[in-house]
Write a structure and sequence with these properties.
The structure is a homodimer. By secondary structure, chain A is of the alpha/beta class. Helices cover 34% and strands 23% of the residues of chain A. Chain A is globular.
């Protein structure tokens, strides 16, 4: 190997978090090198080409009010946003019947609606007792961290309809089954995400806006400004700390730096061998981070035909594949795109996807289009294109955000972001507000860059 | 890279499972190549040198009745066993008081004893409804898989003393906190492990015997017979399947074979990039396998002095570090060795080890010896040696056996062992009886070797 490349700060991962950290440090007068395993920047944001310059977003795609750090970054980079399309009626389909509705909450039957309200009230009341930065100090932390969120739901939902609604909302926003995470983790996310309504809402909520050109433009713009400080195709295998600095060894280059920021999910960080060994809590956090499992499915039409029928394109259903659908057309509506999510997870009856849906692309496409046809009529059966993005099959990314296994928030506490000598941690998983969102990726980067700038 | 090495079956991992599979296939007339990432064979069995040829075992070390596959293998290899030392009184220490007792169950107070009995009865009654090979088909599988075992215990234990006892037994045998795994996983292990008494017992149970020279002798003997079919220092990075065969690419060699057996824990298997992509359920199982976290601590004395006082060396306590202690002296008692387990896990009050114990070897040693002194008197304070083996710090092994996160046994069902084209799976994690034990490693290997021999 050639001589190590010298820099003030080495950054591992060219997703939004790593690149934002690099920008902030550069602005503060530090030199940086960003090492990326993949052949592209953007991490869990990426575009899929539809046709004729139209794209749809394969990864994280929404921003909204309260997400100040990412909104300010968009401004700084000169990127434009547009409003997620939600005009008109949405569709609620259950047990073979479709109803149309306005606003956030589908027309559950009155008992289920009351049940949903009491579940929301109780979750938010509990969430208020969970301190944002130190959720493991909540009075009932031990107890809440030892029970799965799904079990809490099973025990406290009185109607299957409300339970299905909460499960769907949870599965879509968290990319995992409510039984895989702890009640405490979920309460901390509710607290840090601005409450359940805000997290689920489009208008006024976390899905209000999209980025023109796709959210991957954030990473691309950041990388353009960083120039050859960004090294692609260079998976990092080793970090070695000593008294004088830190050596970061990747496939293509060795970097010698004063500090390193690891801007990866804890699960992915576990691929890097660290010498001397990481503290036990950090090592185990990495190994017990359960990555979320989600695919995005897209049906593309020559125009957003549902809009002509006064429909928003949003649907909530108990159908086998398309359980949540939203209009994902480009800002000018030049083509129509419907988006749904498919997980390997799913809880309770009706959300365990059969193997053929998970493993056979043709069956998946057919199931998705059949469901869209039930929801939006026969025009939905013949898209001009079908696309999907499966986040369980990436080489360098072990899945969506995910979370800690039950018991491990109280066991490993702040090991997600507590520096280990010269090693600092970024990535949306280490954010305390809007964890799992683009905004969390930015705030975590800024926090890590600040740590590096103020420690010596 | 040079020409690929051709063989009938490539085997990844030179632990007991991989090497046993290699032996069985060789006996059936197949050629094999075993690729091992580490510079030694044995996987999660290994010896630590004490002095003058005396060893103690850093990894899995016990065998017992009902573990037929490993017992037969020991015979076949000409390895001897000896009985775990348990003569004399054991010590039960709680809230500052020590009591001596005989047999398996410590002298809990009568209410706690009754509570322990009802917990055991209920667990074993539930376990009987869990089918060994297909635990996800149990009538209440969904419900049991969505609740943590720790939560079940919290809800059903009536006394803190009985709960502490179950938690300690669970933590020592599973190397994890009861809140990290599901009730269903635990019930399947109880069923497959021959019941709770059998799993916890020394005499007549799973800890009855030890192997002369250490259990790593099993892997060493197997490897001796396999000769240069075993390639060390050769971590596998890629498996590529095509219509004609499978290519296995490791650091030192490429192997071309008809089939491959991956004899690693699901968590470790995730380090290998597979083309074409693994089925989603398999991919996610690997990423959601939560490895167990355990260290073994050893204090070595010039002789097993406790035996002279009529003590077995076994102790159960509520002390900070030494919560379960057992005599681990060599068969001839030429030196005395006391063994305890330390996890990052631990549940409820008193079992969250503080950071300094986890991260500071000097504090850990001091805490361990202080506890041993409480239990066994002042002679315990001055060992001739102190050793430890921390399984969270291995480069190629992500921890002890561990288990699936809640929800994932019903979601991913048999993905642990269902072959994927030419890829077969071994390792104790894929065993249906004695999963997590040495016996499971052997039976899984024999099952995988049989699959390979009978599929074409």
């Amino acid at each position: 190997m050639t001589e190590p490349r010298r820099t003030d700060v080495a950054i591992i991962g060219a997703g939004i978090s790593g690149l934002t950290a690099a920008r902030r440090l550069t602005q503060a007068g530090r030199s940086v090198v960003v090492l990326e395993a993949d052949d592209r920047v953007g991490g869990r944001t990426m575009n899929l080409d539809v046709a004729d310059g139209v794209i749809t977003e394969g990864g994280g795609q929404w921003v909204g009010p309260g997400q100040d750090r990412v909104l300010l970054l968009l401004d700084e980079l000169g990127l434009q946003t547009f409003t997620t399309y939600i005009a008109g009626k949405s569709i609620y389909h259950r047990r073979g019947r479709s109803k149309r509705y306005d606003g956030l909450i589908p027309p559950l039957n009155p008992l289920a609606l009351a049940d949903f309200a009491q579940l929301q009230l109780r979750l938010e009341r509990m969430a208020r007792t969970v301190p944002l930065d130190v959720p493991w100090t909540a009075r009932r932390a031990r107890s809440w961290d030892g029970v799965t969120f799904g079990h809490w739901l099973d025990a406290n939902a009185r109607t299957s309809e409300a339970k299905a609604m909460v499960t769907m909302g949870f599965t879509v926003t968290n990319a995992e089954d409510p039984h895989t995470t702890s009640l405490l983790v979920q309460l901390a996310r509710i607290r840090g995400g601005g409450g359940i309504d805000h997290m689920l809402n489009i208008t006024g909520g976390a899905q209000e806006s999209r980025v023109v050109g796709g959210t991957v433009r954030i990473a691309q713009r950041l990388a353009e400004d960083l120039g050859d400080a960004v090294v692609l195709d260079s998976p990092v295998r080793e970090i070695l700390q000593d008294a004088d600095g830190v050596s970061v060894r990747s496939a293509r280059v060795e970097v010698r730096a004063d500090r390193v920021i690891v801007a990866m999910s804890p699960a992915d960080a576990d691929r890097i061998h660290v010498t001397p060994s990481l503290p036990t809590r950090r090592a185990m956090l990495q190994r017990r981070w359960s990555s979320g499992t989600e695919s995005k499915l897209f049906a593309v039409y020559d125009r957003p035909f549902w809009r002509e029928q006064g429909l928003s394109g949003q649907a909530v259903s108990d159908l086998p594949v398309a359980q949540y659908v939203v209009d994902n057309s480009p800002p000018d509506g030049s083509v129509g795109i419907l988006l749904s999510f498919l997980g390997t997870a799913g809880s309770g009856s009706g959300q365990h996807w059969p193997d053929e849906i998970l493993d056979d692309p043709a069956a998946r496409r057919a199931g998705f289009l059949a469901d869209l046809t039930v929801l939006f009529g026969p025009q939905a059966a013949t898209p001009t294109a079908y696309l999907e993005k499966d986040w369980t099959q990436e080489r360098w990314i072990s899945g969506c955000v995910g979370s800690r296994a039950p018991g491990s928030l109280t066991q490993y506490t702040d090991a997600d972001r507590r520096p280990v000598g010269r090693i600092h941690w970024a990535g949306t998983e280490t954010a305390t507000t809007n964890q799992g969102y683009l905004d969390g990726a930015v705030s975590a980067a800024e926090r890590a860059a600040h740590e590096v700038s103020t420690t010596r």
